[in-house]
Amino acid sequence: MTDLSFPHLPGGLPDKRQVAASFSRAAASYDSVAQLQRDVGNQLLSLLPGDFVPRVWLDLGCGTGYFSRALGERFPAGNGLAMDIAEGMLNHARPLGGASHFIAGDAERLPLRDSTCDLVFSSLAVQWCADFESVLREAYRVLKPGGIFAFASLCVGTLFELRDSWRVVDGMVHVNRFRELDVYQQLCAASGLDITSLQALPHVLYYPDVRSLTHELKALGAHNLNPGRPGGLTGRARILGLIEAYEQFREAKGLPATYQVVYAVLEKPV
């Protein structure tokens, strides 16, 4: 069993090429294990105003294009842009349609003109961005007045069961240390965008065993890219220690994996 978790970005960052390559390799298997991503994206969609009809929308960090297709169905008259840093994801998404254009791009430096979009939608992508202030600045720049930036991300507390179980085994970095919720709140408040809503909600998935969880993280492309991560395969003794420690969290439904999800809807002032 290899050591798998989400890559660490804030404070000791992996090369973005590593993140892109990892998700590109996972493109074919991603949708089969992406229940969290679908649940979170659907929740984010539900937070958009009911009377809001964007003429141009951007699915930022589109991955396999699942929500590009959902946005295309919800706004059939709109012009859809799907963007991701991982070429493999774009190659998977493009033939499935949903958007008018599929673009390779970085959320911190969007290859779009000013005041291009009515909606920037981003579900579980911006946690990979080291400079979230730049993400907000770029969203503000490409939005038209009255446009909306809706994003879902992850904050501190995500995968705490896995993190705490590894702490029992060794002192090495295994699980990403995500931003604090108050950092999201502060940066959004200072962005020039008006905060319509911003909250963190827990989302818990259950697994029969640790291997099922780590297999899913691998299939999602969410490998451990943390600085200080162990190299190579994880030893059998350490894996047995992880399994024993994680069993302390077991519930009737199975082993829990908690994701603390930040949902935000921001509006560019008219």
Automatic annotation (TrEMBL):
Catalyses which reaction(s): malonyl-[ACP] + S-adenosyl-L-methionine = malonyl-[ACP] methyl ester + S-adenosyl-L-homocysteine
UniProt pathway: Cofactor biosynthesis; biotin biosynthesis
Domain Methyltransferase type: 58-151
Alphabetical UniProt keywords: Biotin biosynthesis, Methyltransferase, S-adenosyl-L-methionine, Transferase
Biological process annotations from GO: biotin biosynthetic process; methylation
Keyword Transferase among record annotations: yes
Family assignment from sequence similarity: Belongs to the methyltransferase superfamily.
Matching SUPFAM superfamilies: S-adenosyl-L-methionine-dependent methyltransferases
InterPro entries named in the record: BioC (IPR011814), Malonyl-ACP_OMT (IPR050602), Methyltransf_11 (IPR013216), SAM-dependent_MTases_sf (IPR029063)
Protein name: Malonyl-[acyl-carrier protein] O-methyltransferase
